[in-house]
Amino acid sequence: MYVMGLPADVTVDDVASVFSRKCGVIAEEIDSGRPRIKLYTDSAGAFKGDALVVFFKPQSVDMAIVLLDDTDFGLELSGTPSGTKMRVQAADSSYKKTNYSNPSEGPAVAARQSDSTEKPPSSNINSGGGKRSEQDKAKIIKKTQKLSAKLADWDDDEPDMLLPPRNSKWEKVVILRHMFTLEELEEDPAALLEIKEDIRDECAKLGPVTNVVLYDKEEEGIVSVRFQTAEAAEACLQLMHGRAFDGRRVEAFYATGRERFKKSKKGDGEMGHDSDGE
After folding, report:
1. What is the pTM of this model?
2. What does the alpha-carbon distance between residue 175 and residue 169 come to, in Å, rounded to a whole number?
């Protein structure tokens, strides 16, 4: 996939950290073990803000588009905004295969040659009639097995709260923690509605939102968001969990129906009912 709008000081490791944490395992070069990420430079050698990221599984590309397109890379990396938004898109027919200048860097990958001033080098890892040696084949098999194991580890590392509840009516409801503080609500009574609208607008990018409840008596800044579809709720968990929001680190998890959060007016804290009648 192709990424645009990255900060000028970004590194391959920075890109790998954000995209692997959010979207899945990034493919690795056969010999070096480095992530298959290419940063594009202009004729003077300055980084252009564009990068190519090669995932191990194609599904990761779709997830990256949903979760990271039009987001701030600095916020995703360290919680500090960079001031620019990324554009994340899948490679299409305009991306032509380009070989790395050093055969040890791996085989050809899809690259948008039209946007890069670099010229494809003449060296080719598949020299000698285009057939790989037995040694190369063995390396590929070994690398694939290693990435498969890493992919399993990546899935296992996901916390239970990020796992979708099976056949549950709560699979469309996401709880967000640390979305506000009681102090800011006390200082500005209008902040409650503003926060709700901000959250609704942000979550609506993932799918239709049917209800947002802000529990203004909870010190942990609890908000519940009900989506029209389970797919949108899952995307919300992936997008919001661990994300910085107004200087706070957000926690996101599925509702269980057993929560009894406190809020004004209707103090029972029943899930799915808001004090303004939504």
Report:
1. 0.44
2. 14
